[in-house]
Specification:
Strand order of the largest sheet: 1-29-28-27-26
Radius of gyration: 19 Å
Shape: globular
Largest sheet: 5 strands, antiparallel
Structural class: mainly beta
CATH architecture: 6 Propeller
CATH topology: Neuraminidase
CATH superfamily: TolB, C-terminal domain
CATH class: Mainly Beta
Number of strands: 32
Number of domains: 1
Length: 341
């Protein structure tokens, strides 16, 4: 049964209930509809970019078509704009542009796109069999591309276009390694993951200088793959998928861990459960707690402590979230909401 058929009733009937500290921030702090989606889609990723919220929607209709795309809406509320009509999957941005990957929408024909934040002009930076993730640094944008021989590579692109530079071959059929995003970047380094499926299966979290060079293993896990990964100025945060069901419904997801960007001992922030999408600010980690019938949104101090529930029932499978200085944004696949952090 399709995702939309399973939870459409839940998403259309539910009104998100706010609890914890969110309601104490003022009259506009409760869950407020920011925008209504033009069609029912699963939100793969979300980001606040300037005055707008962007979301990547990925809902495959048939083998060669999608009911998804890249959308945006004003943070203060308003009608959504469909930026791209493909199967959008991941989003990154810098001071001048928004970047995203999609499947274009035919399977085996992925694309990496750039959109000027000032003019709204979209440019295709690259096309390949698939792109597994995108991240932006101060001078370049990075993506994981998958070529026709199923070799995946870490590639650096000029945000304005130009010749790409392959920084690292990640996996191929020869070494029997598989890859599924995510990827992250800061001013000096790029971070990604590599899942080895032969011998002693493991997933490594890797770090490399942004211009290339030796690869360093920050952490390793025996889990199948890293599901989500984000960074802040000091630490890297991730969770894993251990198998045993669809992670998009919360099955098989491991705890949220963190490690210093320089390396060290991992720390657990969110215990075993169903942590889906998550983001961090200077004080808290925010995450979606997924179950097939109910999704809540919670936060926990980065320094450790007890979790606080922000949204008790988000009304659907909220797989990703985004934040600004005051609000947290989430969706129930029919509407975009905001609530005080």
């Amino acid at each position: 049964m399709r995702w939309r058929e399973i939870i459409a009733g839940l998403a259309s009937a539910a009104v998100a209930a706010c609890s914890g500290g969110a309601a104490s921030g003022g009259a506009d702090c409760g869950p407020t509809v920011v925008s209504t989606f033009p069609e029912y889609v699963g939100v793969a990723s979300m980001a606040v970019v300037g005055d707008d919220v962007f979301w990547a929607a990925y809902e495959r209709e048939t083998v060669d078509s999608c009911a998804g795309g890249l959308f945006s809406a004003p943070r203060g509320g308003g009608a959504p704009v469909k930026v791209d009509a493909g199967c959008a999957q991941s989003i990154a941005f810098d001071a001048d542009r928004v970047f995203w990957t999609d499947l274009a929408p035919v399977i085996g024909k992925g694309a990496l796109w750039s959109r000027s934040r000032s003019s709204g002009t979209s440019t295709q930076l690259a096309q390949d069999v698939n792109f597994m993730g995108v991240a932006s640094g101060p001078q370049a944008v990075y993506a994981i591309s998958v070529s026709s021989d199923l070799t995946s590579s870490l590639v650096q692109y000029d945000p304005a276009g130009g010749s790409p530079q392959k920084l690292q071959t990640i996996s191929s059929l020869v070494d029997k390694a598989s890859f599924r995003g995510p990827i992250a970047a800061d001013a000096t380094s790029v971070y990604w993951t590599r899942s080895v499926v032969s011998g002693n299966p493991r997933t490594d979290i890797l770090k490399m200088d942004a211009s290339g060079g030796p690869v360093r293993v920050l952490a390793s896990t025996s889990d199948i793959l890293v599901w989500r990964m984000v960074i802040d100025a000091n630490r890297l945060y991730w969770n894993t998928w251990r198998g045993g069901g669809d992670p998009g419904y919360g099955f098989g997801l491991g705890p949220v861990m963190s490690i210093p960007l320089s390396g060290g001992e991992p720390t657990q922030l969110v215990p075993d459960g169903s942590p889906g999408g998550f983001v961090v600010d200077s004080t808290y980690l925010y995450w979606t707690d997924l179950t097939p019938k109910r999704t809540s949104i919670k936060k926990v101090p980065l320094a450790g402590g007890s979790p606080v529930t922000i949204v008790d029932d988000a009304g659907g499978l909220t797989t990703d979230i985004a934040i600004d200085d005051r609000f947290l944004y989430y969706s129930n696949s029919l509407q975009l909401y905001r609530v005080c952090k």
